[in-house]
Amino acid sequence: MFLPRHPISAFLLPGVVVALLAFPWMSYAAGPGADVFLGYSRLGADTFYSNVGGLNGWQFALNYKVKPFVGIEGDVSHYGLGTGSSVPRTTNVLFGPRVTAGAAGIKLFVHGLVGGEHSANSGSAHISGGALTYALGGGVDVPLVHFFSWRVTADHLSAPTSSPSDGSRFRFGTGIVFRF
């Protein structure tokens, strides 16, 4: 059974899912042209620190359209959801502009996000640190039913002061989008 080790993720993730599924009327309060993404995410090997393999986790993103093709996006992701204490855990919080275009319900987007990351573990190779982080990438949303789409994303993700030069520096994500 999945039990989040970070106190915020223990409440944030289930709360968002319940709000989106149980209270769809809340979507109208946010105004037109917004979407919420929740899904699986994979972080490349040695993205932030040496000798840290690729990590699995979740990603949550909120985009609010401010102009016809331009939106402001906030992105939170957490990796390393293993049960062992030696598994590094990394949390990213990023914000920035997103440009979206589409036809026939399929939406393509690119974004440039800036924020921070914090990594920690309590294993033999102790990691504890944080750094300024950026993500450059994009994705595609394919419609499923009226308010829901399936998203696939890819980003170049890096923390210039702590990412090893030989790190893979990528992030892949896939999951459900609730569009309102």
Question: Could you walk me through the main structural features you see in this protein, from its secondary elements to its overall organization?
Answer:
The structure is a single chain. The chain has one helix spanning 7-22, and strands spanning 34-43, 55-65, 70-79, 89-103, 106-120, 128-145, 148-158, 170-179. The protein has one domain (33-179): Porin (Beta Barrel). Strands 1-2-3-4-5-6-7-8 form an eight-stranded antiparallel beta barrel. The radius of gyration is 17 Å and the shape is globular. The chain is built from one helix and eight strands; from the N terminus they run αββββββββ. 9% of the residues lie in helices and 56% in strands. The longest helix is centred in the N-terminal third of the chain and has 16 residues, at 7-22. The model is unreliable at 22-31 (pLDDT under 50). With 180 residues, the chain is mostly beta strands.
What is the structure about, briefly put?
With 180 residues, the chain is mainly beta. It has a single domain, classed as Porin (Beta Barrel), CATH 2.40.160.20.
Structure keywords:
single chain; 180 residues; mainly beta; Porin; 8-stranded antiparallel β-barrel; 1 helix; 8 strands; 56% strand
Q: What proportion of the residues form beta strands (DSSP E)? A: over 45%
Backbone CA Rg: 17 Å
Task: Write the H/E string, N to C.
Answer: HEEEEEEEE
Weakly predicted, low-confidence segments: 22-31
The averaged pLDDT comes out at: 80
**Strand pairing plus helix content: what structural class?**
mainly beta
Sheet of most strands: 8 strands, antiparallel, barrel
CATH class: Mainly Beta
**For the largest beta sheet, what order do the strands appear in spatially?**
1-2-3-4-5-6-7-8
Give the second-level CATH assignment, the architecture. Answer: Beta Barrel
What is the share of helical residues?
under 10%
* C-alpha termini separation: 32 Å
Query: How many structural domains in the coordinates?
Result: 1
Q: Compute the number of strand runs.
A: 8
CATH-assigned fold name: Porin
